[in-house]
Task: structure prediction
Amino acid sequence: MNRAEPGDSIDVRLGQPAAGGTCIAHTEGTTWFVSGGLPDELVTAVVTGTRRGGRLGFARVVEVREASTRRVPPPCSLAGICGGCDLLHVAPDYQPVWKASVLRDQLRRLGSIEQIGDQDLAAALPTATPLPVLGWRARFAVDTDAAGQACFHAPRSSELIPVQHCPVVIPELQAAFEQVWPTGMRVRVSDSTTGPTVEPSAAAGGLPAGWRSAATVTRVAGGRSWRVQTGGFWQSHRQAAEILLAAVDQAVRSVEPRRGSSLVDLYSGVGLFAGVLADRRRFERVIAVEGDERAVRLARRNLHDLPAVRLVAADVKDWVRGPDGRSALEAADAIVLDPPRSGAGAAVMTALADSSARVICYVACDGASLARDAKTLLTQGWRFDDLTAFDLYGMSHHLEAVARFVRP
Result:
């Protein structure tokens, strides 16, 4: 049997959505992940790579022979050329349905999860909450080419693609694509309460009118101001912090107030969840643990008026297994964690399962990692009580979710 090689064309009928903005397809002996398509479409695709001796393949649609009614003209001239957005061809009202479908599949396959609360998985996870799919991104990074032009990358490639306009970026930051920047560098751009900002290293060649350079920017969420590194972690959607704060706050409300109540916030960044929950007096004591020392320094500044919060600069995996972590988890009433895309991992989740907490609130940016980490909790006797998905990143496959686990 001859297997398709990179550069070959294949004709396939596309199936269900899958991770990475792809759809599943099958040919004899090979399962394909095909980008640029929609379920039920008949397409011609060019092979971009194979693995596992050709049993797993990757391809990109080059011709749509039978189109889905959910296919729309892309709102960007670089669709399929720039790798920043992978659902530009998908109708906006179908994008949250697509993402929720992928999340359900990941929870089933990787977490063996069929039920959330008292409902089966399909009913428990409604279509992800939709938001405008254009003009939402308020922070991003570009790499500059030899001419100083702002560039994104080609799909799954280091090739630089010059960009003159990006439809998902907020209007206030579009000038980044018109500016001539220092060559061969990464330029991190962020909105702020004081206007568009870049890191100081990018300002050598001048800045667009009204822009500034600074190592940190100020964002507002939960009724508080937050100093954040210009190139550090903060949600790229302007509304994301408020949306996720509301979901986390709701998730821990089931913990009845008591004297000495305690919250542990893991992967706490600049202190967003810890600070707001302490400010709202949900808990008398809050311990926030973060491995990035720069983020912890900013958290100390952000939370200087909240004596209930104790900040810990430590690797989360090491801390939960050490004496300070074990003691804190033994006294915890609730735990909030917002791990990186790779997830918290079995060691951390096992430590949380053994804690005294009555509620664990998990903020997820990757469905596969959530599924694996949830499985660890469930095998330790916890109950998957609630899950809410948020479609915060229009035109891309990315999704945020907030999960709540409780003791039965």
Notes: The mean pLDDT is 94.
